[in-house]
Design brief:
By secondary structure, this protein is of the alpha+beta class. The protein folds into two domains: 111 residues, Response regulator (Rossmann fold), CATH 3.40.50; 103 residues, Orthogonal Bundle (Arc Repressor Mutant, subunit A), CATH 1.10.10.10. The protein contains eight helices and ten strands. The protein has a four-stranded antiparallel beta sheet, covered by helices on one side. The protein has a three-stranded parallel beta sheet with strand order 1-2-3, sandwiched between helices. Strands 8-10-9 form a three-stranded antiparallel beta sheet.
Length: 230
């Protein structure tokens, strides 16, 4: 848990311990948080945005160089732009203050449940190979242009979902329900994750070859099965 407000940290620690969580680590600034992340390898991170030595968005970017565990922003910044920034910098969820501590616990549990169900745990044998990039769901490995690319769990699950549903128009509502497993939370979550995937797998993200937008309907993962998929 990363927050410069000791009252919030004490409150959350108390609630999480009552819910059975153990080994809860706390930090009050970005330097402490990054050090703990590097040394202790936490399973999940609750991250405030406004910290005394940095902002949470910048810190999340640095954390993503160390780990792809779920990061949940917990912040008083409530605008849609703030939320979009949070997702674009690698966040997996965005909780605004004031908050219900039990809701925070529920969201953490949901993220932990999803993050432990990585693509490698599904019974799938196929490697999706599109020449320029390939996805091995059994190993949880994404290779782009011959190089392995680190991919956060939620982006990996979204890419796997597209690979499993080629040449079909998929609405944002359908994608969110199937990949996030929750009641629809808005277009921004899906849009940001799609943009981040395009930046990883597309030669020209502004003119995507695979993940294409179908105006007013959603997205389509366009594949020529004879040429693209080996």
């Amino acid at each position: 848990m990363v927050d410069d407000d000791q009252y919030i940290l004490d409150l959350l620690v108390t609630v999480f311990e009552k819910e059975g969580f153990q080994n809860i680590l706390i930090a009050t600034n970005g330097a402490e948080a990054l050090s703990i992340t590097t040394q202790k390898k936490p399973d999940i991170i609750l991250l405030d945005v406004m910290l005394p030595d940095t902002d949470g968005f910048t810190l999340c970017n640095k954390i993503r160089l160390e780990t792809d565990v779920p990061v949940l922003f917990l912040t008083a910044k409530t605008t849609d732009l703030d939320k979009l920034q949070g997702f674009s910098f690698g966040g997996d969820d965005y909780i605004t203050k004031p908050f219900n501590p039990l809701e925070v616990v529920a969201r953490v549990k949901a993220q932990l449940k999803r993050s432990t169900k990585t693509p490698a745990q599904h019974v799938r044998k196929q490697i999706y190979d599109y020449t320029y990039f390939s996805l091995d769901p059994n190993m949880g490995k994404l290779i782009v242009n011959g190089e392995r690319i680190e991919c956060p769990t939620q982006e990996m699950k979204l890419l796997l979902y597209f690979c499993e549903h080629p040449n079909r128009i998929l609405s944002k509502l359908q994608i969110y329900k199937d990949v996030w497993g929750e009641i629809y939370g808005g277009d921004s979550t899906v849009m940001v994750h799609v943009r981040r995937l395009r930046e990883k797998i597309e030669k020209d993200p502004s003119r995507p070859k695979w993940i294409k937008t179908v105006r007013g309907l959603g997205y389509i993962f366009e594949v020529d099965t004879k040429e693209d998929l080996l």
